[in-house]
């Protein structure tokens, strides 16, 4: 099944996509789900998302795939940054738009596009965030190469993804998700290190919390 085509389906976005967005937006429920299924501390994901609050004025950030827009909420009110929220799913972009606070509407750009063909120039962004997305992609390595192309020299990529080979019950869940077409092939911790290094990125952090790998790399 074509993973990208499934996520582009509006009915899928309104059902499965919306259910995911609703879960991650409720920290209490997400903590239980994360611990039981992935053996992970979900609070580490929320803390990592705060990287967008640290951006100085004049920065440019790419959030891809932005999903339901939970990371956008971490923007500091009044901060003058360029924030691009990109996703292949028009339905998820609709959900993200609805999350915007009134003062964010002139700051956030929404772009419907594939992460494997990012429609921006080389060296355009100071930061890219990619939370809970790489395991949903048909070709994570190609996505990482595209992100690296768009990062300025010294630009950072921060995020996480569900990782094979860490927690048995999570592995079983990911098999089901791949069979349904919701997840792509994903990868192991070693795969992730290879994706980053082959894209020319330097690994600053690559660490598993249960079956979730947290990463911070730079160009």
TrEMBL record:
Transmembrane segments: none annotated. InterPro entries: Methyltransf_11, SAM-dependent_MTases_sf. It comes from the Bacteria. SUPFAM superfamilies: S-adenosyl-L-methionine-dependent methyltransferases (SSF53335). GO terms for molecular function: S-adenosylmethionine-dependent methyltransferase activity. Gene3D superfamilies: Vaccinia Virus protein VP39. Residues 62-158 form the Methyltransferase type domain. It holds the Pfam family Methyltransf_11. PANTHER family: METHYLTRANSFERASE (PTHR43591). This is Methyltransferase type 11 domain-containing protein. It comes from Mycolicibacter senuensis.
